[in-house]
Amino acid sequence: MRSLLTLTLVLLQTADAFVSPVSIGKIAASSIPIHASSSASNDDNSSSMKRRDFVTASSTLISGLSFFPSSQPAFADDGTSISNNGPIVVIGANGRTGSECVGACNDRGIPVVATSRGGVYTGAYGTSNVRSKVCDVTNAGTISSAIEGSRAVIFAASASKQGGTPNAVDNLGLVNVAEACIKQNIPQLVIVSSGAVTKPDSPVFKFLNIFGKIMEEKIKGEDAVRALYAKNGSDKCTYCVIRPGGLTEEVGKGVSSLELNQGDVKSGRIARADVASLCIEATKYPSLTGATTFECYDGDTGKPLQSVGISNIMKQKNTSSSEVFMSGKERRGATFEEIFTGLEKDFS
What we know:
The protein is α/β, with parallel strands linked by helices. The protein has eleven helices and 14 strands. Strands 5-4-3-6-7-8-13-10 form an eight-stranded mixed beta sheet, sandwiched between helices. Strands 1-2 form a two-stranded antiparallel ribbon.
C-alpha cells in the first residue's frame, strides 16, 4: 500500500500547474486584480483540462485511503508534532484562490475538505478525493463541524454579493473561524489576506477599499486574530497571515521565483497557484511560519507600494539591479523551508 501511495504522489506532483479562468467583476480573497490575455487564457485552459484529467485519474488510486486515520502520531516536516493526521480544510474553496488550495492539496496527496456556503465543491479539481462540507463564516454554528479533526484550516474566503459584506466575512467571519480553531486546538490557521492592507495612503489600499471598505475590514480581522492567539498562549495551535500582491491566473512559478517580505512596504504580482502552495506548505513548518505575517510576490516584480499598482497593471518586471527596491526583510529560497526560515514572529 505504501508503494502505491508513493507512486501516486509522484505522479500527482508531475502534473502541470492549473490555471483557472479569469473571472471579471468578482471580489476574490485578497485580490489586486490582474487579468491574463485571451490567447494566454486559451492555452492555459487547455493545459488545465489535461491536468484536471490527470489529477482525477491518479487520485482515484488513493481516494479510498485518504481519510482513514493513521495509527501513528503525525509530524510536520520540521519535526513538530501535530495533533492528528486529518485533512486540510479550505474555507472559501469555490473561490479562485480557494480552489487552487484544493488543487495544491491534491498535488501533494493531502486529504482535503472543501467548504462553501452551499456545501458543494464546484471548483476545477474534481471530487474523487475531495470531501465537501457546509461552512458559512457568517454563521458560527456551521464552522465547528466543518473544521473538526483537521490538521490545518486555510481561510480563503472573502466578501461577495452572495456571501456577505467585507465586515461580515473578512473581519467578523475570520474571527469566528479563529475562535473555532483555538477552541478545537487546530494546529494551524492560514489566512489569505492582502498586501498593502496596513497602508491606507497607498494607491492599492485606496483602490481596493472602494469595494465595501474591504481593506479596512481585512486589517481589523487580522489584528483580531493576532490578539486572540496572543491571549490564548497555547503551543498546540497557531496561525499564519499571508498577504499576496496582485493575483494572476498564470501557471505557478515555484518557490525559487518567489520573494517573501515583512512590514507591508513592498509588493508585486503572484499567481494564485503559488499563493496556494505557500498556504499548504506553511502548514508543514509551524515552527517557522507560526505567529507570522508576511507578504508574497514574484521576486522580479517587487516594487514599493507607492508604485506597485501601475507596475502590476503594466505587467512590468525589474530588468536591472537599479530598479530593485530593497526593504531589508526580503526572504528567498530554493525550498519552502528555506524561504520560511528567519521570518519574524508577530509576538514572542
